[in-house]
Amino acid sequence: MADKCIWNVQNLDCAACAATIEENLNKVEGVKRARVDYAKKQIHVQSTDDRDDAFFQSLIAEAKRVEPALKVSSQPNQGKHTSLRMLIRITFSALFFALAFFLEIPLLFIPSYLIAGYSVLIKAGTNLLHGKVFDENFLMSIATLGALAIRETGEASAVMLLYLIGEFFQDRAVQKSRNAVMGVLDLRADEARIISEGKLEMVDSESVAVGSIIRVLAA
Fold it and tell me: Do 126 and 43 belong to one domain?
């Protein structure tokens, strides 16, 4: 039994989606407070009373209803491991692409395409099943599958490979920005001293109401 959960999330690349998830979770009966930390890629949920795992699993399902490709885990974020996997995929995809190009074996473009683009195809299929169409994954899949249909395997592979390379550099840039933001957030005090009715109280910093009198100690 638990009344508070913190999940790490992946594939949450849209601030608007994060805001929608937070809004929807706060509307669920039994949720005292829900907060989606887009910078840290985390979802914080506190219930009104003790709830079982089924309740919190239903909240995860609600979050995935907004973003079907969302991956939720209670384990630490795997940002570095994700970048490493992407780099490995780029290496092998580029290797097959080079072999196909220089040896003039078009069939080798297929493994290059699949290695670089399987995640795009999976996301497109998942989103399509949930009625979410015409996003970048869907459009990329349609374009490249169309290229494969007319036997332009090199073009299809190149599109997926270049897209993956772009995703890799974007992921690195986002990770650096996120680390910088988290460094600033770590400076934030978890507790605050407020003066209420002449008495000094220690409260959670997030629960400080607007207009409260805060006592700040000199460094």
Answer: no
pTM exceeds cut of 0.70:
no
| Rg of the chain over all Cα atoms, to the nearest angstrom | 23
Domain with 64 in it: 2-73
Q: Is 199 helix (H, G, I), strand (E, B) or coil?
A: strand
More confident residue, 165 or 183: 165
- Cα 93 to chain center, whole Å? 24
Average pLDDT over residues 105-131: 91
The residue to which tokens 């885990």 are assigned: 73
DSSP character string of 61-78: HHHHHH-TT-EEESSPP-
CATH number at residue 22: 3.30.70.100
Report the alpha-carbon distance of residue 141 to residue 145 in Å, rounded. Answer: 6
